[in-house]
Design goal:
binds 2,6-diaminopimelic acid
Length: 326
Protein backbone atom coordinates (compact mmCIF):
# COMPACT_ATOMS: atom_id res chain seq x y z
CA UNK A 1 0.00 0.00 0.00
CA UNK A 2 0.99 3.62 -0.35
CA UNK A 3 0.06 4.68 3.13
CA UNK A 4 2.51 5.95 5.70
CA UNK A 5 3.32 3.09 8.07
CA UNK A 6 3.40 4.27 11.67
CA UNK A 7 4.81 2.65 14.80
CA UNK A 8 4.19 3.89 18.32
CA UNK A 9 6.52 3.57 21.31
CA UNK A 10 4.66 3.83 24.62
CA UNK A 11 1.00 3.31 25.32
CA UNK A 12 -0.04 5.95 27.83
CA UNK A 13 -2.44 8.84 27.23
CA UNK A 14 -0.41 10.16 24.33
CA UNK A 15 0.01 6.75 22.66
CA UNK A 16 -3.74 6.20 22.87
CA UNK A 17 -4.27 9.61 21.29
CA UNK A 18 -1.96 8.68 18.42
CA UNK A 19 -3.92 5.47 17.74
CA UNK A 20 -7.09 7.51 17.49
CA UNK A 21 -5.48 10.23 15.31
CA UNK A 22 -4.14 7.63 12.85
CA UNK A 23 -7.71 6.41 12.50
CA UNK A 24 -8.70 9.90 11.33
CA UNK A 25 -5.98 10.10 8.67
CA UNK A 26 -6.62 7.76 5.72
CA UNK A 27 -3.08 8.20 4.38
CA UNK A 28 -1.66 6.42 7.47
CA UNK A 29 -1.73 2.95 8.92
CA UNK A 30 -0.70 1.67 12.33
CA UNK A 31 1.83 -1.16 12.21
CA UNK A 32 2.20 -1.78 15.93
CA UNK A 33 2.58 -0.37 19.40
CA UNK A 34 5.84 -1.10 21.20
CA UNK A 35 5.74 -1.21 24.96
CA UNK A 36 8.03 -2.12 27.84
CA UNK A 37 5.19 -4.06 29.42
CA UNK A 38 4.48 -7.69 28.50
CA UNK A 39 2.12 -7.32 25.49
CA UNK A 40 -0.04 -10.29 26.55
CA UNK A 41 -0.81 -8.62 29.90
CA UNK A 42 -2.32 -5.51 28.30
CA UNK A 43 -6.04 -4.99 28.28
CA UNK A 44 -6.77 -4.97 24.53
CA UNK A 45 -10.48 -4.70 23.70
CA UNK A 46 -9.80 -3.08 20.32
CA UNK A 47 -7.47 -5.83 19.14
CA UNK A 48 -4.45 -3.57 18.72
CA UNK A 49 -1.10 -5.03 17.80
CA UNK A 50 1.12 -4.74 20.86
CA UNK A 51 4.76 -5.74 20.65
CA UNK A 52 7.56 -5.72 23.18
CA UNK A 53 10.18 -3.01 22.60
CA UNK A 54 12.82 -5.71 22.48
CA UNK A 55 11.39 -6.74 19.09
CA UNK A 56 11.63 -3.29 17.60
CA UNK A 57 14.72 -3.82 15.45
CA UNK A 58 12.93 -6.45 13.38
CA UNK A 59 10.54 -3.75 12.21
CA UNK A 60 13.02 -1.30 10.78
CA UNK A 61 11.85 -2.01 7.21
CA UNK A 62 8.18 -2.12 8.05
CA UNK A 63 7.77 1.22 9.78
CA UNK A 64 8.21 4.56 8.04
CA UNK A 65 7.81 6.74 11.11
CA UNK A 66 8.07 5.85 14.78
CA UNK A 67 6.10 8.17 17.06
CA UNK A 68 7.68 8.31 20.51
CA UNK A 69 5.00 8.72 23.17
CA UNK A 70 7.11 8.56 26.33
CA UNK A 71 7.46 11.34 28.88
CA UNK A 72 10.12 14.04 28.78
CA UNK A 73 11.29 13.60 32.34
CA UNK A 74 12.99 10.22 31.93
CA UNK A 75 11.80 8.32 28.80
CA UNK A 76 12.63 10.62 25.90
CA UNK A 77 16.16 11.61 26.95
CA UNK A 78 17.01 7.92 26.38
CA UNK A 79 14.49 6.93 23.73
CA UNK A 80 14.92 9.94 21.42
CA UNK A 81 18.64 9.39 20.67
CA UNK A 82 18.15 5.58 20.70
CA UNK A 83 15.26 5.23 18.25
CA UNK A 84 16.75 7.77 15.84
CA UNK A 85 19.55 5.25 15.20
CA UNK A 86 16.97 2.94 13.54
CA UNK A 87 13.85 4.91 12.57
CA UNK A 88 12.53 8.24 11.42
CA UNK A 89 11.01 9.59 14.63
CA UNK A 90 8.59 12.21 15.92
CA UNK A 91 8.43 13.17 19.60
CA UNK A 92 7.01 15.73 21.98
CA UNK A 93 10.02 16.43 24.21
CA UNK A 94 8.81 19.44 26.18
CA UNK A 95 11.39 20.39 28.79
CA UNK A 96 11.99 23.79 27.19
CA UNK A 97 15.29 24.48 28.98
CA UNK A 98 16.76 21.19 27.77
CA UNK A 99 15.62 21.30 24.14
CA UNK A 100 18.96 22.58 22.76
CA UNK A 101 20.86 19.74 24.45
CA UNK A 102 18.25 17.14 23.44
CA UNK A 103 18.36 18.40 19.85
CA UNK A 104 22.13 17.84 19.71
CA UNK A 105 21.86 14.29 21.05
CA UNK A 106 19.05 13.23 18.72
CA UNK A 107 20.72 15.00 15.81
CA UNK A 108 23.92 12.99 16.27
CA UNK A 109 21.99 9.72 15.98
CA UNK A 110 19.83 10.88 13.10
CA UNK A 111 22.68 12.27 11.03
CA UNK A 112 24.56 8.98 11.46
CA UNK A 113 21.58 6.79 10.56
CA UNK A 114 20.37 9.06 7.76
CA UNK A 115 16.95 9.34 9.44
CA UNK A 116 14.76 12.36 10.15
CA UNK A 117 13.90 13.05 13.80
CA UNK A 118 11.25 15.68 14.47
CA UNK A 119 11.65 16.69 18.10
CA UNK A 120 9.60 18.77 20.51
CA UNK A 121 6.37 19.03 18.62
CA UNK A 122 2.82 19.14 19.99
CA UNK A 123 1.29 22.45 21.04
CA UNK A 124 3.84 23.87 23.44
CA UNK A 125 6.50 23.32 22.31
CA UNK A 126 5.00 23.08 18.85
CA UNK A 127 2.11 25.17 17.57
CA UNK A 128 2.70 27.84 20.22
CA UNK A 129 6.39 27.99 19.31
CA UNK A 130 5.53 28.58 15.65
CA UNK A 131 3.14 31.33 16.59
CA UNK A 132 5.70 32.98 18.87
CA UNK A 133 8.20 32.92 16.01
CA UNK A 134 5.79 34.39 13.46
CA UNK A 135 4.49 37.07 15.82
CA UNK A 136 8.00 38.12 16.83
CA UNK A 137 9.21 38.22 13.24
CA UNK A 138 6.25 40.31 12.09
CA UNK A 139 6.03 42.69 15.03
CA UNK A 140 9.68 43.25 15.69
CA UNK A 141 8.90 45.88 18.32
CA UNK A 142 6.71 44.29 20.94
CA UNK A 143 6.34 41.97 23.87
CA UNK A 144 5.06 38.44 23.81
CA UNK A 145 3.37 36.30 26.38
CA UNK A 146 2.38 32.67 26.61
CA UNK A 147 -0.38 31.58 28.96
CA UNK A 148 -1.47 28.00 29.57
CA UNK A 149 -4.62 26.65 31.15
CA UNK A 150 -6.45 26.29 33.19
CA UNK A 151 -5.74 22.69 32.30
CA UNK A 152 -3.88 19.48 32.85
CA UNK A 153 -0.26 19.61 31.71
CA UNK A 154 0.81 16.10 30.70
CA UNK A 155 4.46 16.98 31.17
CA UNK A 156 3.99 18.23 34.74
CA UNK A 157 1.60 15.43 35.64
CA UNK A 158 4.10 12.88 34.37
CA UNK A 159 6.85 14.58 36.36
CA UNK A 160 4.94 14.36 39.66
CA UNK A 161 4.05 10.72 39.02
CA UNK A 162 7.77 9.96 38.92
CA UNK A 163 8.37 11.27 42.44
CA UNK A 164 9.03 8.34 44.81
CA UNK A 165 5.98 7.61 46.96
CA UNK A 166 3.52 9.04 44.41
CA UNK A 167 1.01 6.50 43.12
CA UNK A 168 -0.96 8.80 40.84
CA UNK A 169 -1.43 12.48 40.28
CA UNK A 170 -2.42 15.34 38.02
CA UNK A 171 -1.19 18.88 37.70
CA UNK A 172 -3.30 21.87 36.73
CA UNK A 173 -1.66 24.92 35.24
CA UNK A 174 -3.63 28.00 36.29
CA UNK A 175 -3.09 31.34 34.50
CA UNK A 176 -3.46 34.61 36.40
CA UNK A 177 -6.53 36.23 34.81
CA UNK A 178 -5.81 39.81 35.94
CA UNK A 179 -2.54 39.99 34.00
CA UNK A 180 -4.19 38.47 30.91
CA UNK A 181 -6.86 41.17 31.00
CA UNK A 182 -4.23 43.90 31.32
CA UNK A 183 -2.33 42.60 28.28
CA UNK A 184 -5.47 42.33 26.16
CA UNK A 185 -6.08 45.98 27.04
CA UNK A 186 -2.76 46.95 25.49
CA UNK A 187 -0.58 47.01 28.60
CA UNK A 188 2.83 45.34 28.33
CA UNK A 189 3.85 44.50 31.90
CA UNK A 190 7.21 42.80 32.65
CA UNK A 191 6.19 39.54 34.31
CA UNK A 192 8.23 36.87 36.04
CA UNK A 193 7.36 33.20 35.54
CA UNK A 194 5.76 33.17 38.99
CA UNK A 195 3.45 36.09 38.20
CA UNK A 196 1.82 34.45 35.17
CA UNK A 197 0.75 31.01 36.40
CA UNK A 198 0.09 28.98 39.52
CA UNK A 199 0.52 25.22 39.62
CA UNK A 200 -1.85 22.98 41.53
CA UNK A 201 -1.09 19.29 42.07
CA UNK A 202 -3.46 16.53 43.21
CA UNK A 203 -1.50 13.56 44.43
CA UNK A 204 -2.40 10.04 45.52
CA UNK A 205 0.41 8.91 47.82
CA UNK A 206 1.47 5.36 48.48
CA UNK A 207 0.57 4.03 51.89
CA UNK A 208 2.98 5.27 54.59
CA UNK A 209 4.74 7.60 52.16
CA UNK A 210 6.31 10.72 53.68
CA UNK A 211 3.98 13.45 52.41
CA UNK A 212 6.20 16.29 53.51
CA UNK A 213 9.09 14.88 51.50
CA UNK A 214 6.83 14.32 48.47
CA UNK A 215 5.58 17.90 48.64
CA UNK A 216 9.11 19.15 48.92
CA UNK A 217 10.34 17.03 46.01
CA UNK A 218 7.54 18.41 43.84
CA UNK A 219 7.71 22.13 44.66
CA UNK A 220 11.51 22.22 44.37
CA UNK A 221 11.70 20.29 41.07
CA UNK A 222 13.81 22.30 38.60
CA UNK A 223 12.26 23.28 35.23
CA UNK A 224 8.84 21.97 36.28
CA UNK A 225 7.90 23.63 39.59
CA UNK A 226 10.74 25.52 41.24
CA UNK A 227 9.94 28.83 39.51
CA UNK A 228 6.22 28.72 40.33
CA UNK A 229 3.96 28.97 43.34
CA UNK A 230 2.92 25.34 43.56
CA UNK A 231 0.37 23.76 45.87
CA UNK A 232 0.17 20.03 46.53
CA UNK A 233 -3.06 18.40 47.72
CA UNK A 234 -3.17 14.78 48.81
CA UNK A 235 -6.32 12.99 47.74
CA UNK A 236 -7.58 9.42 47.51
CA UNK A 237 -7.56 7.29 44.37
CA UNK A 238 -11.39 7.50 44.38
CA UNK A 239 -11.31 11.31 44.45
CA UNK A 240 -8.76 11.34 41.65
CA UNK A 241 -10.97 9.11 39.48
CA UNK A 242 -14.14 11.02 40.31
CA UNK A 243 -12.87 14.59 39.95
CA UNK A 244 -9.73 14.58 37.84
CA UNK A 245 -10.30 12.13 35.00
CA UNK A 246 -10.70 14.73 32.24
CA UNK A 247 -7.63 16.19 30.59
CA UNK A 248 -8.65 19.58 29.22
CA UNK A 249 -6.05 22.21 28.46
CA UNK A 250 -5.33 25.16 26.22
CA UNK A 251 -4.01 28.63 26.42
CA UNK A 252 -2.73 31.32 24.12
CA UNK A 253 0.23 33.11 22.70
CA UNK A 254 -0.15 36.85 22.45
CA UNK A 255 2.18 39.47 21.05
CA UNK A 256 1.46 43.10 21.63
CA UNK A 257 3.49 45.31 19.35
CA UNK A 258 3.58 48.72 17.76
CA UNK A 259 4.19 49.85 14.19
CA UNK A 260 4.34 53.29 12.58
CA UNK A 261 3.44 56.18 14.86
CA UNK A 262 2.53 54.02 17.84
CA UNK A 263 -0.26 51.96 16.33
CA UNK A 264 -0.85 49.02 18.64
CA UNK A 265 -1.07 45.63 16.88
CA UNK A 266 -2.08 42.55 18.85
CA UNK A 267 -1.69 39.00 17.56
CA UNK A 268 -3.38 36.18 19.47
CA UNK A 269 -3.41 32.43 18.84
CA UNK A 270 -5.48 30.36 21.20
CA UNK A 271 -6.39 26.73 21.86
CA UNK A 272 -9.33 25.37 23.85
CA UNK A 273 -8.81 21.66 24.18
CA UNK A 274 -11.18 19.09 25.67
CA UNK A 275 -8.35 16.52 25.53
CA UNK A 276 -4.75 17.65 25.78
CA UNK A 277 -3.27 14.23 24.87
CA UNK A 278 -5.55 13.72 21.87
CA UNK A 279 -4.69 17.15 20.53
CA UNK A 280 -0.96 16.69 21.11
CA UNK A 281 -1.23 13.32 19.35
CA UNK A 282 -2.97 14.96 16.38
CA UNK A 283 -0.06 17.37 16.03
CA UNK A 284 2.45 14.50 16.23
CA UNK A 285 0.62 12.65 13.47
CA UNK A 286 0.64 15.69 11.16
CA UNK A 287 4.39 16.01 11.76
CA UNK A 288 4.80 12.29 11.06
CA UNK A 289 3.50 13.01 7.56
CA UNK A 290 6.02 15.84 7.23
CA UNK A 291 8.84 13.60 8.49
CA UNK A 292 7.86 10.95 5.95
CA UNK A 293 8.06 13.42 3.08
CA UNK A 294 11.33 14.92 4.27
CA UNK A 295 12.82 11.46 4.56
CA UNK A 296 11.69 10.61 1.00
CA UNK A 297 13.50 13.74 -0.15
CA UNK A 298 16.68 12.47 1.46
CA UNK A 299 16.68 14.85 4.41
CA UNK A 300 18.24 13.60 7.65
CA UNK A 301 18.99 14.91 11.14
CA UNK A 302 16.93 16.40 13.95
CA UNK A 303 14.32 18.99 13.00
CA UNK A 304 11.97 21.21 14.98
CA UNK A 305 8.73 22.89 13.92
CA UNK A 306 10.85 25.87 12.83
CA UNK A 307 12.60 23.82 10.17
CA UNK A 308 9.56 22.27 8.51
CA UNK A 309 7.51 24.11 5.88
CA UNK A 310 3.77 24.05 6.73
CA UNK A 311 2.75 22.46 3.41
CA UNK A 312 4.49 19.23 4.48
CA UNK A 313 1.91 18.76 7.25
CA UNK A 314 -1.02 18.51 4.89
CA UNK A 315 -2.19 15.42 3.01
CA UNK A 316 -3.10 17.77 0.15
CA UNK A 317 -0.76 18.47 -2.73
CA UNK A 318 0.93 21.86 -3.10
CA UNK A 319 -1.38 22.57 -6.11
CA UNK A 320 -4.45 21.73 -4.07
CA UNK A 321 -3.24 23.86 -1.15
CA UNK A 322 -2.64 26.86 -3.40
CA UNK A 323 -6.11 26.53 -4.90
CA UNK A 324 -8.00 25.87 -1.67
CA UNK A 325 -6.27 27.51 1.25
CA UNK A 326 -4.15 30.37 0.03
C1 LIG B 1 1.61 23.74 31.03
C2 LIG B 1 2.14 23.75 29.64
C3 LIG B 1 1.57 22.62 28.87
C4 LIG B 1 2.07 22.55 27.49
C5 LIG B 1 1.54 21.38 26.75
C6 LIG B 1 2.30 20.11 26.92
C7 LIG B 1 1.93 19.40 28.18
O1 LIG B 1 2.36 23.98 31.93
O2 LIG B 1 0.45 23.52 31.26
O3 LIG B 1 2.83 18.96 28.88
O4 LIG B 1 0.75 19.22 28.42
N1 LIG B 1 3.59 23.75 29.65
N2 LIG B 1 3.70 20.30 26.79
Amino acid sequence: SNSIRIGIVGYGNLGKGVVSAIGQNPDMELVGIFTRREPSTLNNPDGLKFLHVREVEQYSNEIDIMILCGGSATDLPEQGPHFATMFNTVDSFDTHAKIPEYFEQVNQSAVKSGKVAVISTGWDPGMFSLNRLMAESILSEGTDYTFWGKGVSQGHSDAIRRVPGVKAGVQYTVPVQSVIDAIRNGETPALSTREKHLRECFVVAEENADRERITNDIVSMPNYFADYDTTVHFITQEELEANHAEMPHGGFVIRSGVTGKNNRQIIEYSLKLASNPEFTASVLVAYARAAYRLSKEGVSGAKTVFDIAPGYLSPKSPEQLRAELL
